[in-house]
Amino acid sequence: MTGLENALFRALAVVIAIALPLLTFGCKAGGDPNPHAQGPQAIPVKVQIARNIPVNNTTEYVATLKSRNSAVIMPQVEGYIRQIYVHSGERVESGAALLEIDPLKQEATVTSQRSNRAAQEANLKWAQQEYERASGLFAAGVVSKQELDRTKSALDAAQAQLHSLDAQVREQQVQLKYYKVDAPWSGIVGDIPVHVGDRVTTTTMLTTVDKPGSLEAYVYVPIERSTSLKMNMPVHIVDAEGNVLAESRISFISPQVDNTTQTVLVKSLITNNRDKMRTSQFIRARVIWETRNTPVVPVLAVTRIGDQYFAFIAEAQNNGSFVAHQRPLKLGQMIGNNYVVLDGMKPGDKVVVSGTQFLMDGAPVMPQQVPSS
Question: pLDDT tier at 273 (50, 70, 90 boundaries)?
């Protein structure tokens, strides 16, 4: 065999060696399918059943608390403050003395009026004696009727003068009581901006006394939402963490709009249990516009791609198996560990809550239900 023949023989052997496995594989591939062959294995996942819960459509506003029983204490007389009996923040009973204005001048006036009354009372006794004497002499025919009438007139004038002085004394005595300022009811003393020695007038604010209990929340709602306001609409007072401090309802809606802020004043009565809130405090008022039943989805079940949110739903097939489908969702506010679903889910859907990072759309799954949170 020549060298050329040897080379051709070796090349043919290589071709046969390469082609034979390919032919064998093609025969197996083109043969009958294995009746025991299986598709992709189902992935075990945990699911929660989507359910409707009552969800509030709310808006929070900054509100101011004001006392419905807050008395601004002003003096009814003028003078210099002689003594202050209480401190700011102190609890006082009704009628307790708060402070005293120097009453020396008024006491002198009362003493003078009493002296005048005593003098007039002596004049009245003398006029009474004169009238009685004139009456006896007139009966004896010693004095004329004119003299009798004169003494009677003097007696009447003395009596009238005494009555006038009595009224003046009572008036000055009442005025003297105003120099001691008392609490109009039981409550808590506010700030006391005056000091001993200050001169005060009837327009000077001395302090305030707030009766514990009911407060009123002043909520200023933008005019754009004013058409949705209704009487008895629920209002929740919440703290910085969103915890509800008090529940109330709208009790007043102003018919006018504030020209400066373009808002509508809304008032709500608040029961101040255990004095958790104080007058003039800024708080957060949550106005509940409506309550509707809406499905929710756990936060851990939601994935975000760009600006779109998705969740896997285990959907049943005709043969009883389940397939995970990625469904786009429109989400609302967060409540606890759940998102409110505005669109894309209905009650009863099996929401995949675990193993979502291993899933693809259309992957077979084996759902295992877990309790809803």
Answer: low
